Backbone:
């Protein structure tokens, strides 16, 4: 199985690249942000809870997020592998994911971390806010809080994978195709390792 953690701050291009990667590698895309937004739209209990955190740019609590992610993986028993997009965002989430995948005799193959400088992130998010109407992209103070939360709680998750030799930093500028190309090269390296 090829299980990729697509990582990076808000606005780094995870969603865009994930769409291209699932088509090329035939993987199942699980974006925790998208799943929360679908729940908000459907007015579920989970959606109501998630919204109260997302509107402030805070993280949804680990217990809720982990249970949701595990249930989404279980809904796709025939998947050849997954792209985890927006998850794990904390070290406890990374630990839970490892235990969960190990119980299924698999593991994360590699974390691909998109690296983009902060001003570029803010510009991209504000543009996305105008086009998509996402509330958390339209307000500069919420964007600033998301980047702060990323720096304080999420960035450290890279160390978890680096310690296992599964961390690849990808410079996220230079156009969508150029970034995609770099991601594919990194994946192909780890694919050889996992299939041996
Ligand atoms: P972005 O990466 O652009 O900020 P996402 O769509 O991935 O956007 O996430 C939007 C929001 O959903 C986050 O700010 C957070 O509130 C919530 N969220 C998404 N994934 C997680 C997660 N793994 N743990 C906790 N909260 C999450």
Residues:
């Amino acid at each position: 199985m090829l299980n990729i953690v697509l990582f990076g701050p808000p606005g780094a291009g995870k969603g865009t690249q994930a769409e291209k990667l699932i088509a090329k590698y035939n993987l199942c895309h699980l974006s925790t942000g998208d799943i929360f937004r679908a729940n908000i739209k459907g007015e579920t209990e989970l959606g109501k809870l998630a919204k109260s955190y997302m509107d402030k740019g805070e993280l949804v609590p680990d217990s809720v997020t982990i249970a949701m992610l595990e249930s989404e993986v279980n809904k796709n028993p025939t998947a050849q592998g997954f792209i985890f997009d927006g998850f794990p965002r904390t070290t406890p989430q990374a630990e839970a994911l490892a235990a969960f995948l190990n119980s299924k005799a698999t593991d994360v193959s590699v974390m691909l971390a998109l690296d983009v400088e902060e001003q570029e992130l803010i510009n991209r998010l504000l543009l996305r806010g105008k086009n998509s109407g996402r509330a958390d992209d339209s307000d500069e103070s919420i964007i600033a809080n998301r980047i702060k939360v990323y720096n304080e709680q999420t960035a450290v998750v890279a160390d978890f994978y680096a310690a296992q030799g599964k961390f690849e930093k990808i410079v996220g500028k230079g156009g969508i195709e150029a970034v995609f190309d770099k991601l594919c090269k990194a994946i192909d390296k780890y694919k050889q390792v996992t299939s041996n």
Notes: Strands lie at 2-7, 28-31, 81-85, 110-115, 167-171.
